[in-house]
Amino acid sequence: MTTTTASAQSRERTVGKSSPGTARGPRRRPGRIRRIGLPYLLLLPALLLELLVHLVPMVIGIVMSFKELTQFYIRDWTVAPWTGLDNYSLSVDFDAPVGEALLHSFLVTCVFTVLSVGLCWLIGTAAAICMQDAFRGRGLLRAIFLVPYALPVYAAVITWAFMFQHDNGLVNHVLHDQLGLTDKPSFWLIGDNSFVALLVVSVWKGWPFAFLIVMAGLQNIPKELYEAAALDGAGVWQQIRRITLPSLRPVNQVLVLVLFLWTFNDFNTPFVLFGKAAPEAADLISIHIYQSSFVTWNFGAGSAMSVLLLLFLLLVTGVYLFLTSRSSRTPRAAREGKTADV
């Protein structure tokens, strides 16, 4: 009788421990809440930094664009008079000197961005394709190609500024003294040649990034495609056109957008190369806004120009993403239609 009672009690304890509704039920909810809240807790420092570094200054800049914030109100910018849209109307009045100068800077920046992004993509893609096949010394060449991207921007641009010097620069020494391509030493940091100098520096430090991204994208293309194309008699250019470039399309879409945003907003390169006053031929909009804000001490107009630049970049980015997403869906829909017809 005692043995039967003990066994029954032990079975009851076993059933009680294994019952999900009694022992484990209340403990699941706190664990689930902790698992759900952990990602947000980990993202909290990044969100706070994003708020303090980007969003708060952006809001302050937008507020400043509606004020007559000059050097007389630097000590306390909150008491600056409210001007409404006067700073914006002054910036877009292309018949006035301020608007005309801003339009010229915008056009120079557009031409510079198109040339720089195009050359960076072209050189980076060509170098990545040449480095695709294995050969002796490929790793060393890849490391050398990435040196301009690894160097600090200020060190690289200052080196180029010394090389572009008129009297004792390396560029004039090679082009004029050694090769005799010019009649006399050229001025690279002033005048019309300043645009060429700025473009050379931008492409030199930007194409390794395109090379790195395209080289990573080439690793995902199966080699069997090239082997099958070679058996069908396709040459190198046909393989690049029919296999490489279509396969790199998603990578190139992101790469071109990133290069566009970086180049259009580039401030360090012209500032270090030319100083506070860039030549007219190389007056990028970033350095122009800096001059309007910190040289003429008109922070209200400079803030309005910055907001207009932000709106332009948002518009271009939105249109670009819409067109690229639409073009990527069109071939897929065509393939699905052909499959359905079959």
UniProtKB/TrEMBL annotation:
| Single GO BP term | transmembrane transport
Places the protein is found? Cell membrane
Gene3D superfamilies per record:
MetI-like
Q: Which InterPro entries match?
A: ABC_transporter_permease (IPR051393), MetI-like (IPR000515), MetI-like_sf (IPR035906)
Q: Does the keyword Ion transport apply?
A: no
Region annotation (Disordered) ranges? 1-30
Output the CDD domains linked to this UniProt entry: TM_PBP2
Report how it sits in the membrane.
Multi-pass membrane protein
Give UniProt keywords alphabetically. Cell membrane, Membrane, Transmembrane, Transmembrane helix, Transport
The record lists the membrane-crossing segments as 37-66, 106-131, 143-163, 195-218, 247-264, 299-323
What residue stretches are annotated with the ABC transmembrane type-1 domain? 106-320
Among PANTHER family, the record links this protein to: ABC TRANSPORTER PERMEASE PROTEIN, INNER MEMBRANE ABC TRANSPORTER PERMEASE PROTEIN YCJO
Q: What family is it from?
A: Belongs to the binding-protein-dependent transport system permease family.
Descriptive protein name: ABC transporter permease
User: What is the organism lineage in this UniProt record?
Assistant: Bacteria, Bacillati, Actinomycetota, Actinomycetes, Kitasatosporales
